[in-house]
């Protein structure tokens, strides 16, 4: 029996915005300046990894990736509209482009992850199959499983591209709590099973830095993503 689904059934749990550019060799001289300015603009910033070709920073707002040819901002459990997320992206990418003297982006991408929980991976696989994205009979294939557990579709035009991935998956959370918290349980172990929608929405043509405003582009892009995801799920 088909399982009706819509975009509203899925909870957004991660957002990633990434910009790519021509190799910025100023990274070898100015990474420290980037970090200093990030520390002035965000909360509780820590260096997680530092190397000549790339570094990662953590903050209360999210995680920062800094590389020769790309940089990214990642936030877990971002706000639904991504308005707060987009403000953080603007601050970070303004710092990077200013320090590295970047004028043109080769690619701008917004990647979002959303999940709907199910009691078992079998139920998640049944939900995936019931959407009807594959025009093939659901039965055992290649001597493997009876149902597919992942579908990937890509669309690309002259200006915009999108990769849509739908996957039934299961994972574990294993957390050891510090003794000083004096919690009733010293450890937390939890299994998470569900259907995950992963959408990468990106530009194809180069974009001048002066023409791109993440504060308007990101919320507009997530609205487009949700509209299209809804259309796919309800087909």
Can you characterise this structure?
- With 235 residues, the chain is an alpha+beta fold.
- It has one domain.
- 27% of the residues lie in helices and 38% in strands.
- The protein is built from four helices and eleven strands; from the N terminus they run βαββββαββαββββα.
- The strands form two sheets. The chain has a nine-stranded antiparallel sheet, with helices on one face. A two-stranded antiparallel sheet has the order 6-11.
- The model has no long low-confidence stretch (mean pLDDT 88).
Question: Helices and strands in order, then pairings?
Answer:
Layout: E1 11-20, H1 27-41, E2 46-51, E3 54-58, E4 63-67, E5 70-76, H2 83-100, E6 104-105, E7 107-117, H3 121-130, E8 150-156, E9 160-176, E10 187-203, E11 207-208, H4 214-233
Antiparallel strand pairs: 1-5, 1-7, 2-3, 3-4, 4-5, 6-11, 7-10, 8-9, 9-10
List keywords for this structure.
235 residues, alpha+beta, nine-stranded antiparallel sheet, two-stranded antiparallel ribbon, elongated
Could you write a compact summary of the structure shown?
With 235 residues, the chain is α+β, with helices and mostly antiparallel strands. It has helices at residues 27-41, 83-100, 121-130, 214-233, and strands at 11-20, 46-51, 54-58, 63-67, 70-76, 104-105, 107-117, 150-156, 160-176, 187-203, 207-208.
Listing every helix as H and every strand as E from the N terminus to the C terminus, the arrangement reads EHEEEEHEEHEEEEH
Number of helices: 4
Distance between the termini: 15 Å
Structural class: alpha+beta
Percentage of β-strand residues: 35-45%
Label the overall shape: elongated
Using DSSP, what is the number of strands? 11
Provide the domain count. Answer: 1
Question: pLDDT average, as an integer?
Answer: 88
Radius of gyration: 20 Å
Largest sheet: 9 strands, antiparallel
